[in-house]
């Protein structure tokens, strides 16, 4: 559309959000409309669209609205900020492409009865890329312990661990696609497997004696929905966050009842 302003309904449809969300952004001063018509309708110009794009990008990184407001206030150069975010997205695109090629290599080798090269199997699965984030969230010891654990594993052990993660993700998606309730026996069995998996990874709050397992599980559930880096592991065929929301809700029921 070649126009100077868009109505709130048009913007909501284009951005895949809701008018209610946009009104909330206005109420908290995050995204005020460019103008308000005589009928009280909100309208947004091109600058507002650029700002909304940045808000949505930052939301996908898992930032809360107060943190997003701080980032936008601190970074006034829209173009340079978007260029930096684009660089990160391209890095993620490259990492995912390498993971896809790695998994395809394994599938081809299994189908053909060929030997598998361990160094090819884990291309794109570089856990060190989250070093700073893990240390910020849970401390340097948490990262050091998990890193030591991962590096101590053989190629077969790493493959088995990756398979366990893959199987769990597959079963979560199948359950979400089936439309079962988060508090159903099947969903709660998956939640139990998920928590057992989490508590088996050294360095996490879930594995530490006396750690806040419940808080950790609830926090991860919310992260699965807020951060697409994790939410894509549970994406259903229709896209969106439905699968991640199902995992979050099932984990919440399990945590409240069992942890």
Short description:
By secondary structure, the protein is mainly alpha-helical.
Integer average pLDDT: 78
Distance between the termini: 52 Å
- Helical/strand content category: mainly alpha
Compute the CA-based radius of gyration.
21 Å
Order of strands, main sheet, comes to: 1-3-2
What's the total helix number?
13
Low-confidence stretches: 115-125
The biggest beta sheet is recorded as: 3 strands, antiparallel
Task: Specify the overall morphology.
Answer: globular
Q: How much beta, percentage-wise?
A: under 5%
Q: How much helix is in the residues?
A: 55-70%
Order of helices and strands: EHHEEHHHHHHHHHHH
How many runs of DSSP E, i.e. beta strands?
3
Features:
single chain; 259 residues; mainly alpha; 3-stranded antiparallel beta sheet; 13 helices
Task: Please render the helix and strand layout as text.
Blueprint: E1 5-7, H1 8-15, H2 19-27, E2 35-36, E3 42-45, H3 46-60, H4 65-74, H5 78-112, H6 118-121, H7 131-138, H8 140-152, H9 155-178, H10 185-199, H11 213-226, H12 228-231, H13 242-258
Antiparallel strand pairs: 1-3, 2-3
Helix pairs in contact: 3-5, 7-8, 9-10, 9-13, 10-13, 11-13
What can you tell me about this protein's structure?
- By secondary structure, the protein is mainly α.
- It has helices at residues 8-15, 19-27, 46-60, 65-74, 78-112, 118-121, 131-138, 140-152, 155-178, 185-199, 213-226, 228-231, 242-258; strands spanning 5-7, 35-36, 42-45.
- The chain has a three-stranded antiparallel sheet with strand order 1-3-2.
- A hairpin with a 5-residue loop joins strand 2 and strand 3.
- Helix 9 (155-178) crosses helix 13.
- Residues 115-125 have low confidence and may be disordered.
């Amino acid at each position: 559309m070649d126009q100077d302003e868009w109505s709130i309904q048009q913007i909501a449809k284009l951005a895949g959000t809701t008018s209610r969300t946009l009104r909330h952004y206005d109420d908290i001063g995050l995204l005020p409309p460019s103008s308000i018509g005589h009928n009280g309708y909100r309208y947004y110009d091109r600058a507002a669209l650029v700002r909304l794009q940045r808000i949505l990008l930052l939301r996908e990184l898992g930032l809360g609205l107060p943190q997003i407001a701080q980032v936008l206030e601190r970074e006034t150069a829209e173009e340079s900020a978007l260029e930096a975010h684009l660089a990160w997205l391209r890095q993620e695109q490259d990492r995912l492409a390498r993971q896809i090629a790695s998994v395809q290599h394994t599938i081809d080798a299994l189908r053909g009865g060929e030997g598998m090269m361990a160094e090819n199997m884990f291309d794109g699965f570089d856990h060190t890329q989250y070093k700073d984030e893990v240390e910020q969230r849970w401390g340097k010891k948490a990262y050091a312990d998990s890193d030591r654990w991962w590096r101590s594993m053989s190629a077969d052990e790493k493959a088995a661990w990756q398979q366990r993660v893959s199987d769990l993700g597959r079963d979560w998606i199948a359950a979400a696609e089936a439309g079962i309730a988060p508090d159903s026996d099947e969903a709660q069995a998956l939640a139990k497997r998920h928590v057992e998996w989490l508590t088996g990874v050294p360095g996490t709050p879930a594995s530490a004696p006396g750690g806040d397992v419940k808080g950790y599980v609830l926090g991860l559930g919310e992260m699965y929905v807020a951060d697409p880096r994790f939410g894509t592991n549970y994406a259903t065929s229709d896209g969106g966050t439905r699968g991640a929301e199902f995992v979050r809700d099932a984990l919440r029921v399990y945590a409240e009842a069992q942890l």
